[in-house]
Amino acid sequence: MPKRFMLLPHGALLARASARFDLARFSALLLLVLSGCAALNMKPPESAQRVSTAPVNGHAPSHTSRDQALTIGAAKVRDVKGTPIYPAGLTAYGRMPDQTHWDYQYQVRDGSSVLRGECAEQVGEVRYYGLGETLLDVSCRCFLGQRPVADLNVTGGAGKATLFGSPANTSARALPDQRFAVFGTRGAEGGKSSRDILGYRFQSGKNVGAIDVTKAARAYYGEGLSKDDQRVLTCLYAGLLLHRPRR
User: How many other CB atoms are there within 10 angstroms of residue 235's CB atom?
Assistant: First the structure.
């Protein structure tokens, strides 16, 4: 049978063309907005001290997977393992209740120094407005061999970190613990701000540190931090780069 064609009135053709144009314009605007959001970087920390910067390579922010190989300055983050992140209500073997807890582990190698990190994420706040989202809290601990050297706890985007001191021995005096307040920051370069946390600032008296967790990630170290402190902070920075704060 021959195909039947229906001629649309001139007004209907104009309406359809206008709808297509509006859709194309909306799509272009959405891409522009998204590209602008993706380009935001964390505002560098302000400090009376001189702050050095280390580049981060291999970081790709994602809500569904973790980085497998990172470098933070000269340090290499490897052997990343942990609980798989499944879509809500779904596992590789069928349906299940939504995940509420995730663990992950990694190693940080810097020259002859090897630190091990262990982190746990847990559901914190659940927001139902808009499309809905789940925000996760995270805690991490870093080890040198079997000895813990630092821990970190972030709840609702803020928390604290501790670099553990060492007892006195025949060759060195005792070193006290160093405690940092940790603040998630949404402030971006250029005076802009973001809905998402762009990085975390560490503050302990005059000593500062920070880690930008955006696609163009960077690590910051105040000049008052010793080389050992910087290595331990790098281990905590790695835990935050691997952290996925939203589901």
Answer: 28
In angstroms, the CA 216 to CA 214 distance is 5
Q: What 8-state DSSP symbol labels residue 78?
A: E
Q: Within the chain, which residues score under 70 in pLDDT? A: 1-39, 88-97, 127-132, 167-174
Look at residues 244, 245, 242 and name the one whose alpha carbon lies nearest to residue 80.
242
Q: Which of 228, 218, 208 is nearest to 48 (CA)?
A: 208
- The residues, any chain, with a CB within 8 Å of residue 19's CB and separated by 6 or more, are none
Q: For 231, phi and psi rounded to 5 degrees?
A: -65, -45
Is 207:224 a contact under the CB 8 Å cutoff?
A: yes
DSSP H helices, the chain, are 10-38, 227-242
What is the number of H-type helices and E-type strands within the chain? 2, 14
Q: List the beta bridge partners of residue 109.
A: 76, 114
How confident is the model at residue 70, as a pLDDT? 97
